[in-house]
Design brief:
heterodimer; A: 271 residues; alpha+beta; 3-methyladenine DNA Glycosylase II, Chain A, domain 3; Alpha-Beta Plaits; two-stranded antiparallel sheet; two-stranded antiparallel ribbon; 8 strands; B: 191 residues; mainly alpha; 9 helices
Chain lengths: 271, 191
């Protein structure tokens, strides 16, 4: 009776012990030395595996940082805090970078921009742009079919009234939307600079005005109003030098077409 | 000689573990997205299945049958397979790191791969001799390889197809797997 219970238990237990000892011996004998800093760096990385750094994922990126093939700055998602912690782990200085955000340089939603024709094809920006530049009269404006929203790994882009809008607190400036936008109207700008010219049209002032109610017509009122001399012109399109801009908001007040807008001003006093 | 061929071809075509016994479906669907990974995974399964067949036969014959403990087969065999997989993992990590990386989560999954356990339990049920048991395990592994590689090829083609939205991803893969399985039923009655 006792043998019926004891023997099986001994045999199974003995087998388990044997395999366990064998495995622990093998794991010592065939141990692989891994740089412990790789694990430390990996723990600090965001872990979204978005691939914005150019590596296949956060594991590969951690490996590349430790081996010195990549800078921690290659990860646009983690921000300055992550860079600081990685430089502590590696014991090297990595100059920190200003936090950035993506912005759509267009305000031409359905109700303010003119249409050339009705479009009922594939809901895809690239496809739309291939068809006579899209249904919008302005050739430079947002196609509004949401290629960028689909490409965003962080759900930071929404399409409202045929216009892409970036939810800046979610944006990690990974730059995926920049790559897919066929109109090239999304740009990475420093988060600090709140005032932005939300127009990309290089058309002459009259043409812009005909096509869109909120386009930049190149009237130069803003550059005259700017106390910091931060506004220059690319043809008839105003451009704000984010290095010089002091976010005073004077250009926003004088702009006759509301083509200059303030981002993240809503939380503060309206300029 | 004829019997060797019958056992191996039978395990590959007639009794294919994935396509006619429906064992090991998880790695079959999980790792068949890329041909390279499929080959690596199949190699691991062939190795583990053959080795498990040999070790479990010895344990069954020397320990379990001797003391009339064949009711412990399942428990003992799971123990053997789990240890073997761990061992293969350690060896791969040391000597073939790229393969280890490519297999990732799927190598530990062989531990619970029912195809391996199915093979060794079938060995015992049919009371194969040692040689035949090892052959059957090897053949079963090859059958798994065939199914996985065939299916990886199909899935790589599926990637470029315009699949209706509702069927994208796993659903169309399952349908394709079912069709391949139906095709394999043509081998029934070959021997």
């Amino acid at each position: 009776m006792i043998q019926d219970i004891l023997l099986p238990a001994l045999i199974i237990g003995g087998l388990g012990l044997l395999f366990g000892l064998g495995l622990s011996y093998a794991s010592k004998k065939f141990a692989v030395k891994v740089d412990e800093r790789v694990d430390l760096v990996r723990a600090v990385l965001p872990g979204a595996n978005c691939g914005a750094c150019g590596e296949t994922g956060c594991d590969a990126f951690a490996q590349a940082i430790v081996e010195g093939n990549c800078s921690a700055l290659g990860c646009p998602v983690g921000g300055a805090d992550m860079v600081k912690r990685i430089s502590e782990i590696l014991g090297i200085e990595v100059e920190s970078e200003e936090p950035k955000t993506a912005r759509v340089m267009c305000k031409g939603s359905i109700d303010v921009s003119k249409h050339k024709f009705d479009y009922s094809g594939i809901r895809d920006c690239t496809a739309v742009s291939k068809l006579y530049g899209g249904p919008f009269a302005c050739a430079y404006g947002c196609a509004g079919m949401g290629d960028c929203a689909r490409a965003c790994p962080f759900d930071a882009i929404v399409i409202e009234d045929g216009l892409a809008r970036i939810i800046e607190y979610k944006c990690t400036s990974c730059g995926k939307c920049l790559d897919v936008c066929p109109k090239n109207i999304i740009r990475l700008v420093p988060r600090r600079s709140e005032v932005t010219v939300t127009c990309s049209s290089l058309d002459k002032g009259g043409a812009v005005r005909k096509n869109c109610k909120v386009g930049c017509i190149g009237c130069r009122k803003c550059s005259k109003a700017c106390p910091a001399d931060a506004i220059s012109y690319k043809g008839t399109l105003a451009e704000i030098d984010t290095g010089k801009c002091i976010n005073c908001g004077k250009c926003i007040k004088v702009c006759p077409t509301n083509a200059i807008n303030c981002f993240s001003c809503n939380s503060r006093e309206k300029v | 000689m004829r019997e060797i061929i019958v056992i191996i071809m039978g395990a590959i075509l007639v009794e294919n573990f994935v396509l006619s016994k429906f064992l090991g479906i998880c790695p079959f669907l999980g790792i068949s997205k890329k041909l390279g990974n499929a080959v690596g995974m199949s190699g691991a399964v062939v190795f583990v299945m053959t080795a498990a067949s040999a070790v479990t036969w010895l344990i069954n014959d020397l320990l379990l049958l001797k003391y009339n403990l064949d009711y412990l087969q399942t428990v003992a065999f799971i123990l053997v397979i789990a240890s073997l997989v761990q061992f293969v993992e350690i060896i791969l990590k040391k000597f073939v790191p790229p393969l280890y990386k490519a297999l990732g989560i799927y190598l530990p999954l062989i531990t619970t791969n029912c195809a391996v356990l199915g093979a060794v339990l079938l060995n015992m049920e049919r009371e194969y001799t040692f040689g035949r048991a090892v052959l059957f395990g090897f053949g079963g592994g090859l059958g798994f390889t065939l199914a996985l590689i065939l299916f990886a090829g199909i899935r790589e083609k599926l990637e470029n197809c315009n699949v209706p939205h509702a069927f994208r991803g796993l659903p169309i893969s399952l349908i394709a797997a079912a069709l391949v399985s139906v095709a394999f039923f043509g081998f029934q009655g070959l021997f």
